[in-house]
From TrEMBL:
Its EC number is 1.5.1.5, 3.5.4.9. It comes from the Bacteria. Keywords: Amino-acid biosynthesis, Histidine biosynthesis, Hydrolase, Methionine biosynthesis, Multifunctional enzyme, NADP, One-carbon metabolism, Oxidoreductase, Purine biosynthesis. PANTHER family: C-1-TETRAHYDROFOLATE SYNTHASE, CYTOPLASMIC, C-1-TETRAHYDROFOLATE SYNTHASE, CYTOPLASMIC-RELATED. Pathway: One-carbon metabolism; tetrahydrofolate interconversion. This is Bifunctional protein FolD. Signal peptide: none annotated. It comes from Pseudomonas taiwanensis. NADP(+) binds at G166, R167, S168, I232. Residues 140-285 form the Tetrahydrofolate dehydrogenase/cyclohydrolase NAD(P)-binding domain.
Length: 300
């Protein structure tokens, strides 16, 4: 077997971000500057780091970023009010509420309040429904990033058997929908699945999104499989803390034809596709505004 390819997510993310930056410049020349508003409720240190990175990346792409940081005791009504104001603001194209939210706030109520056209995380049920119908909607960033890596590595995915391990709304389910849209035969495994290892061993493509360190090893994999490892797990090994995926990379490398590392695989893609979704949202809103202005003119 040829030497397996370690898929570099940093290079792929730089490609995506470079294209976004170029398209943002073109939009700016036409008088529109894409804008992303991020709401952070509370002071969870990990969330603060994620938000800071999103804001920095937006600025690098020429996207305006607005950061709204409110205390952990902020009421749900106030968060909904903030979203309402941002929904109404024509200069804001994307709205992101950093998860998780404090316990007294109902996450699904908040996500449903975002205008689906500005829902750059792709979590609103209108976008979730559209994705399951195979429509071109704003889809969640991590699975979209995984699809980019798969197409870049394999080209056409038609007819491949893809196994997705994990069925969360954020990764597993949208990942399966995107693979189906790309004409894969899709199997989803979850915590109640029987014979998971045997089923996984039939897959041409494995996407692991579980959150269990090093769960998938060579025994789970068919020779020549392509593995996308979404998991991010912190473990303590040999007295030091390090990040690992859901896949035991060292073991998997004896079987796979290509695999994403952790870190440096899927991670950088998520933020790159958040920027691309913001750009897409800005383009779509600008076009639909131009269309409705044109139809107003033709009526008057
Ligand atoms: P969730 O905890 O929401 O979902 C985990 C899924 O794994 C569930 O569907 C669960 O099944 C399934 N599962 C648990 N144990 C097993 C098992 N033994 N066999 C098969 N399936 C199992 O996690 P997320 O989807 O949010 O995230 C998954 C991982 O991806 C995490 O490590 C997270 O940190 C990472 N992540 C990485 C991102 C990135 O940018 N790289 C972005 C988002 C997440 P059930 O439904 O039955 O409980």
């Amino acid at each position: 077997m040829n030497c397996p390819l370690v898929i570099d997510g940093k290079i792929a993310a730089a490609e995506v971000l470079g294209q976004v930056k170029h398209d943002v410049e073109v939009m700016k020349a036409d008088g529109v500057r894409p804008c992303l508003a991020v709401i952070l409720v509370g002071d969870d240190p990990a969330s603060e780091v994620y938000v800071r990175n999103k804001v920095l990346r937006a600025e690098e792409c020429g996207i305006t970023s607005l950061e709204y940081k409110v205390g952990s005791d902020t009421s749900q009504a106030h968060v909904l009010h903030m979203i309402e104001v941002l929904n109404e603001d024509a200069a804001v194209h994307g709205i992101l509420v950093q998860l998780p939210l404090p316990k007294h706030i109902d996450e699904s109520v908040v996500l449903q309040a975002i205008n689906p056209q500005k829902d750059v995380d792709g979590f609103h049920s209108e976008n979730v429904g559209g994705l399951s119908q195979g429509l071109d909607v704003l889809a969640p960033c991590t699975p979209t990033g995984c699809m980019y890596l798969l197409h870049k590595t394999l080209g056409d995915l038609s007819g491949k058997h893809a196994v997705v391990i994990g069925r969360s709304n954020i990764v597993g389910k949208p990942m399966a929908a995107l693979l189906l849209k790309a004409n894969c035969t899709v199997t989803i495994l979850h915590s109640r699945s029987e014979r998971a290892e045997t089923i996984c061993r039939q897959a041409d493509i494995v996407v692991a999104a579980v959150g269990r360190p090093l769960m998938v090893d060579a025994d789970w994999l068919k020779p020549g499989a392509i593995v996308i490892d979404v998991g991010i797990n912190r473990i303590n090994a040999g007295g030091r803390s390090r990040l690992v995926g859901d896949v035991d990379m060292e073991s998997a490398l004896t079987k796979v034809s290509a695999i994403t590392p952790v870190p440096g695989g899927v991670g950088p893609m998520t933020i790159a596709f958040l920027m691309r979704n913001t750009l897409t949202a800005a383009k779509q809103q600008t076009q639909s505004r131009a269309k409705s202005e044109a139809s107003c003119l033709s009526i008057s």
